[in-house]
């Protein structure tokens, strides 16, 4: 390549890099619009749930049962993933 073509390629590459940086900065700096209606509803819902606290033995037992079922599901999923990693290749006919 001649010296002038190297300069042209260098200028084009630098221009593309600058355009890429500008595009990335302009697309990522704009925050997503926030709806005030949904945020007002979520604060009302959280206020309603925080004022009602049931700490009876039946409620705690129900929560513990729910957590135990979730943990058993996670354990089962983990076992399935482990067994799938240990699968052997099936010979093709």
What would your notes on this structure say?
With 93 residues, the protein is mainly alpha-helical. Helices cover 76% and strands 0% of the residues. The protein has helices at residues 3-28, 36-51, 57-85. The chain is elongated. The model has no long low-confidence stretch (mean pLDDT 79).
Comma- or semicolon-separated keywords:
93 residues; mainly alpha; 0% strand; elongated
In short:
The protein has helices at residues 3-28, 36-51, 57-85.
> So how many helices?
3
- On the 0 to 100 scale, the average pLDDT is 79
What is the string of SSEs from the N terminus onward?
HHH
Q: First CA to last CA: what distance?
A: 55 Å
The helix content, as a percent range, equals: over 70%
Q: How is the topology of this model organized?
A:
Blueprint: H1 3-28, H2 36-51, H3 57-85
């Amino acid at each position: 390549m001649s010296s002038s073509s190297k300069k042209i390629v260098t200028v084009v590459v630098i221009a593309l890099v600058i355009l890429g940086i500008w595009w990335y900065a302009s697309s990522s700096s704009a925050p997503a619009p926030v709806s005030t209606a949904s945020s007002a509803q979520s604060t009302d819902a959280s206020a309603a749930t925080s004022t009602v606290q049931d700490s009876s033995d039946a409620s705690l037992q129900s929560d513990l049962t729910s957590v135990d079922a979730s943990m058993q599901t996670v354990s089962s999923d983990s076992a399935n993933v482990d067994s799938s990693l240990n699968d052997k290749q099936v010979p093709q006919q």
